[in-house]
Structures are given as C-alpha cells and as structure tokens.
Amino acid sequence: MLKAVTESTQKGSVSVCGGGDTVNLLKQVEGAKDHISHVSTGGGASLELVEGKELPGILALSDIN
C-alpha cells in the first residue's frame, strides 16, 4: 500500500498519512516520507481531517485574524 501511495503522490495526488505506527514505518522505508504530502503523528486527527471535519486546533488558529 505504501508503494501505491508514494507512486500516486509522485504523479500529483495529495496523500495524508497519520498515526504513530505509520510514522515509524515511514522512517524505516528509506525515502518514503519524502513522497507523502502530509505526515502527522495524530492518527485520529488525520482521519477527521480527511473526513472533512472541523478540527479544534485549526479553528482556533483560524480565529486569530
């Protein structure tokens, strides 16, 4: 699956990978992290981002201006 995601990202797709175990995998596979659009240690938050939910931290930062 990692190979498919990195290849798709290199062709222009946006990829989001999240969660501590996923980050550990990306560290083990040389160069993989460089071919992912966004890497997050927050697995649950990453899933909510992909689902289109509003994230409290993002909302708080948006209200600064």
Summarize the structure.
By secondary structure, this protein is mainly alpha-helical.
Task: Kindly describe this structure.
By secondary structure, this protein is mainly α. It has one domain. Helices cover 52% and strands 9% of the residues. The chain contains four helices and two strands; from the N terminus they run αβαβαα. Strands 1-2 form a two-stranded parallel sheet. β1, α2 and β2 form a beta-alpha-beta unit. The termini are far apart. The mean pLDDT is 87.
Low-confidence stretches: none
Q: How do the SSEs run, as a string of H and E?
A: HEHEHH
The number of distinct helices, counting runs of at least 4 residues, comes to 4
Query: In percent, how much strand structure appears in the residues?
Result: 5-15%
Question: Please, what is the oligomeric state?
Answer: single chain
Form type: globular
The termini sit apart by: 40 Å
Tags for this model:
single chain, 65 residues, mainly alpha, two-stranded parallel sheet, 2 strands, 9% strand
